[in-house]
Amino acid sequence: MSQTSQHQNIVAPLPPEPGAPVASLPHSCAPAPAGDVAGTPAEGTAPAPPRPRARLIGIDAARGVALIGMMSVHLIPAATDDGDVSWAWLLSNGKASALFALLAGVGIAFSTGRHRPPRGLAWRAGALSLLTRAVIIAAIGLALGYVVGTDDAAVILAYYGVLFALAIPFLRLSTRGLVVAAALAALVMPLVSYGLREGMTPVAEVNPTLTDLVTDPVGLLLRLTLTGVFPALVWITYLLAGMAVGRAVLASRRVVGQITLIGLALALASSLLSMLLLTVGGRGELLRVDALRTMDFELYQDTLTWGPSGTTPTNSPWWLVATAPHSGSPLDLAFTVGVALSVLGACLLLGRGLQPLLRPLAAAGSMTLTLYSVHLLLVAAPIPRGELNLVVQVVVLVAFAMVWNRSHLRGPLEELVWRATDAVRRKVLGSPGAHRAPGTGAGS
């Protein structure tokens, strides 16, 4: 069984609707007086607005939900004393990481024109700043690999770096184009992955490090894109789906409601279809012919229940219709995208009237790169795991985020990312606001 980890951060400013309250929590990634968050902040080229603007606090809250879900998977055992799936794994395994990845796509869309994809110089600035972010996030992840063992958590940040780089060719796509691209990726990339990995020697589950970048760059790239726990070629589905959401008008209740309903329908339909296919033919096929030729029955059952380590087994194509966590099958991607859309939509809707209640989650969600990294260091420390550890970490990290946000626009690591990407953006554009194409600002 592999324990998974996840990370990501995204928020952007919106003009307030008539009568809507303006949130006072510092905006984590506004164009100018706010900043980058967790590697996927919204970054605009427009000058600072003359006064505070309303924000989609629900996006920060959704990131906070994903962060706590990831922490619970790392700190709560997968199975109960009775051998059943624990509540933490049932609720979060494979879902929290998908939510983070989808939110990363939303942040990329916010940072590159929101509703209108970038063109010309604005596209070049967005692409180079995103590539800069990719390098920094990957470097942080590879550095954490020295400290965090695979028994502690699977560090996702290096995979995110590759994902951000892969997103660059899709920056110019419209909402409809991104939806089509995400659907094609969900259908095609698991098949491509299955075909490429068939016959390959399984790769050991080891968190990559900077040493791997020097001693085995090809092997590292192969792991991050194809064979690892969060393979970027398959996970690009989440990023594209999130970018499509980010191009939508999230200030509209109707649009957010539609996104929520689509997510619920997608999760339900994919789950029922998988169950039907496995019950009618897949399960018997796996048991009688394929899977049990190369794995024992206990391993087969564990794989269906707990999920493989990021990729579908290649001993039977029937695995491609399963929704086992972290299997990366088409139906698993559809199910987890649906869950992520549902959670995001619910948080956006709740954020309209329950901002005070969402503030702790939103504070944590506004600096997840920092909190995620601290959490990984705590997980690697010789401290007993369990629900008490989870409660203590959540309370401490959320309290730190709320205090920090009172006097800082960004978390410590978020500030590092923002300064580097902002410098690249300004270099490309020449000066603040220069050569700004219509619709390229994060608040547009």
Briefly summarize what is shown.
By secondary structure, the protein is mainly alpha-helical. Helix content is about 60%, strand content about 0%.
The oligomerization state is single chain
Helix content: 55-70%
- Low-confidence spans: pLDDT under 50, at least 5 residues? 1-54, 433-444
H/E order of the elements?
Answer: HHHHHHHHHHHHHHHH
- Mean pLDDT score, rounded? 82
Strand content: under 5%
**Termini gap:** 44 Å
The largest sheet is: none
Question: Based on helices, strands and strand pairing, what is the structural class?
Answer: mainly alpha
Rg for CA atoms:
21 Å
Number of helices: 16
Q: Looking at the structure, what is the overall shape? A: globular
Features:
444 residues, mainly alpha, 16 helices, globular, disordered N terminus, disordered C terminus
Layout of SSEs?
Blueprint: H1 57-75, H2 87-92, H3 96-111, H4 120-144, H5 157-167, H6 175-197, H7 210-215, H8 217-227, H9 232-247, H10 253-294, H11 297-306, H12 330-350, H13 355-365, H14 368-380, H15 387-404, H16 412-429
Helix pairs in contact: 1-3, 1-12, 1-13, 1-14, 1-15, 3-9, 3-12, 4-5, 4-16, 5-9, 6-9, 6-12, 10-12, 13-15
Describe this structure in words.
The chain has helices at residues 57-75, 87-92, 96-111, 120-144, 157-167, 175-197, 210-215, 217-227, 232-247, 253-294, 297-306, 330-350, 355-365, 368-380, 387-404, 412-429. The protein is mainly α and 444 residues long. Helix 5 (157-167) crosses helix 9 and helix 6 (175-197) runs antiparallel to helix 12 (330-350). The radius of gyration is 21 Å and the shape is globular. The relative contact order is 0.20. Residues 1-54 and 433-444 have low confidence and may be disordered.
